[in-house]
Design a protein that fits this description.
The complex is a heterodimer of chains A (327) and B (316). Chain A is of the alpha/beta class and 327 residues long. Chain A is built from eleven helices and twelve strands.
Chain lengths: 327, 316
């Protein structure tokens, strides 16, 4: 389902999300945690964009801001050419039919007091598309499409294992036949054998329904498997964006290089020779990011300019964008 | 022959199979709740006791047949006898008749006052917890009510409105409305605080975010996702509320702010009997037993309901 015509489904422009830090009785603003700090990218129809980065770099916040689940401090999100900021609440609610989200923790993302059937039918009822017998049929059909028994509709989430619960979450996201799904670390809470099942399910569904994914993960090999293009985030910014092939074969940004060097190779001979780039120090606090390049404090190749000026996000080769002074 | 038997078995089995299938499909929520509720022995006992007390106070007077307000000075301070099963008091009222009549009022006051305080407390708690801009004002209002000295407040309210309500609805109904309202409006604060705290927690859970991302309206998020998940604290405060309302009513009656002195309620009987505890201790014991049984049974019912409504505890 790789669309060659390159129709842009989602466009993110200079998106930022800052959480204010307040102090004292009057809640004076004394600073901001820059969780997402000016990211821009485009997602083409039918493709999977992988978003990687270590914990706390703003991946999930970016997902929430894109879906307007929390407000952006700055920047715009265009979905099918429509600026989501300019929509009224009701228009946005209607548009949510076309963009859905799969959550990280299947334990948390399902209401423990609702049956699986009512969880999956909630979006259908909310948008008034189905009723009665047709609704029940649709729920059963959705359960089957994620590989679950239709009789499970009467059960409660706690009666299922993590992988099954994640499938319920996927069925809910699929209910309204959306075009675009954000997968916010859908496999992080699952064990490895179940991870493969869920990822394969997501791929099958993509092929079947022509879905577009923004796939967030910190698992580099999984991203390599599922994504067409990959964006690497560090401390609220995208440092490198390239096609999966190009990124994994020729990582340009020092951070990406360090990340990739940490992935084990499944060949003992080559694994022995694998050179690791060990990053020293911690990720700086997003409340007080370093001036210049955010990665400068941990970069082994940093020069003077890296500490002063923030690098532009620019084209390194065809379809390969990097934010680094050295390239 | 064999074929025929097979055929008839198949015909017989088929409808059976269909009903079985339907049963699976329509396993209803309330059926499950009821099944789980029945497994809670205490709750079942609570229901039985509560129904027994309710039936007793509603139909008992018809069987017992003595008017609770009859005064008979010849039969003062009697012990239990056939004509007066629970004895009489110092001016010859029949104690059983008084307890039955008082029970109607006490139960009604307890139930309706609890309902008012519960609805008010839940409403304010949910609004404060869910809508950030209302949190401050509503919680300060709650603090204000908590800080008010309740007895002087009750005094003022009752003095202000007693006569108007009496003329509007008659002396007894008027006072009943007033007392229920007054108790309800002065006891919602704890519910509101507990509910607000729980709503603040639940609203940050991921399934609420998921509901937002689906496009569920705010009102529905409250009713579908938040309220069911804060049911346990609401249940607990409801059951405690019944007890609290019965006791508060008796305190009001004692102060002369509640029902008129000749109008029996459990609390009033308890307080009146307290002066005669050495002559006729049963006058204290019986209303006390009834209040305690009611409160205890309501508590157990609430306990059972809370467990039955939580799918995670069901079937364990």
């Amino acid at each position: 389902m790789k669309s060659k015509e390159g129709e842009i489904l989602l466009k993110v422009e200079n998106l930022s999300k800052h959480f204010p830090i307040t102090k004292g009785l009057l809640r004076r603003k004394i600073g901001a945690i820059k969780a997402v700090d000016g990211i821009s990218f485009e997602i083409l129809k039918g493709e999977t964009l992988g978003l990687v980065g270590e914990s706390g770099c703003g991946k999930s916040t970016a997902a929430r801001v894109i879906l307007q689940l929390s407000y952006a401090t700055e920047g715009n999100v265009f979905f099918k050419g429509q600026d989501l900021n300019s929509l009224s609440k009701e228009e946005l609610r209607k548009l949510r039919q076309q963009m859905q989200m799969i959550f990280q923790d299947p334990q948390e993302s399902l209401n423990p007091r609702m049956t699986v059937g009512s969880i999956i039918s909630e979006p259908l009822i909310e948008h008034g598309t189905f009723r009665g017998k047709v609704l029940q049929d649709r729920v059963e059909q959705l359960l089957e499409s994620v590989g679950m028994n239709r009789e499970f509709a009467n059960r409660y989430p706690h009666e299922f294992s993590g992988g099954q619960r994640q499938r319920i979450g996927i069925a809910r996201a699929l209910a309204l036949s959306p075009d675009f799904i954000i997968c916010d670390e859908p496999i992080a809470a699952l064990d490895v054998s179940i991870q493969a099942q869920v990822v394969n399910l997501l791929e099958d569904l993509q092929e079947k329904f022509g879905l577009t994914y923004l796939f967030i993960s910190h698992d580099l090999s999984m991203i390599r498997h599922i994504a067409d293009r990959v964006a690497v985030m560090y401390l609220g910014r995208i440092v490198e964006l390239a096609s999966s092939k190009s990124l994994y074969s020729r990582p340009s940004h020092p951070y990406t290089q360090a990340l990739l060097s940490a992935v084990p190779i499944h060949d003992p001979k080559r694994e022995k020779k694998r050179e690791r780039i060990i990053l020293t120090g911690d990720v700086p606090s997003p409340a007080d990011p370093p001036t210049g390049c955010h990665f400068s404090t941990r970069c082994s190749m940093a020069k003077e300019i890296c500490f002063k000026e923030s690098p532009n996000f620019r084209k390194a080769s065809r379809g390969h964008h990097v934010a680094c002074h050295l390239i | 022959m064999e074929y025929l038997i097979q055929g008839s078995v198949m015909i017989e089995k088929k409808p059976h199979f269909i009903t079985f299938d339907n049963e699976i499909q329509h396993r209803s929520l309330w059926g499950d709740v009821w099944r789980q509720f029945c497994m809670h022995k205490g709750a079942l006992a609570g229901v039985i006791v509560f129904i027994f007390i309710t039936l007793l106070v509603s139909f008992g007077p018809l069987i017992h047949g003595i008017d609770p307000s009859t005064i008979n000075f010849r039969e003062r301070n009697l012990g239990p006898s056939l004509s007066h099963p629970l004895g009489t008091d110092n001016i010859g009222h029949d104690t059983l008749a008084q307890i039955l009549a008082g029970g109607q009022v006490s139960l009604a006051v307890g139930f309706f006052a609890m309902l008012i305080s519960l609805v008010l407390g839940t409403l304010i708690g949910v609004l404060a917890g869910f809508i950030k801009s209302l949190d401050g004002p509503l919680m300060r209002l709650t603090d204000l009510f908590l800080a008010l000295p309740i007895l002087p407040l009750l005094l003022v309210i009752i003095l202000l409105f007693r006569d108007t309500l009496r003329t509007l609805y008659g002396p007894e109904a008027g006072i009943f409305l007033l007392i229920v309202f007054v108790i309800g409006i002065t006891s919602w604060m704890h519910t509101a605080r507990i509910v607000r705290g729980d709503v603040l927690g639940i609203k940050e859970r991921e399934f609420v975010t998921a509901a937002h991302s689906i496009g569920t309206k705010k009102r529905r998020i409250i009713f579908r996702h938040i309220l069911p998940n804060i049911l346990s604290p609401i249940m607990v405060s409801a059951t405690l509320g019944v007890a609290n309302a019965i006791i508060t009513e008796s305190a009001l009656s004692f102060l002369g702010l509640g029902f008129p002195p000749d109008f029996p309620t459990w609390g009033r009987l308890l307080y009146d009997g307290a002066n005669f505890i050495q002559i006729t201790p049963t006058r204290v014991i019986w209303p006390g037993v009834f209040i305690a049984l009611t409160v205890l049974s309501v508590n157990y019912i609430g306990d059972g309901l809370r467990d039955a409504l939580d799918p995670r505890l069901r079937g364990k």
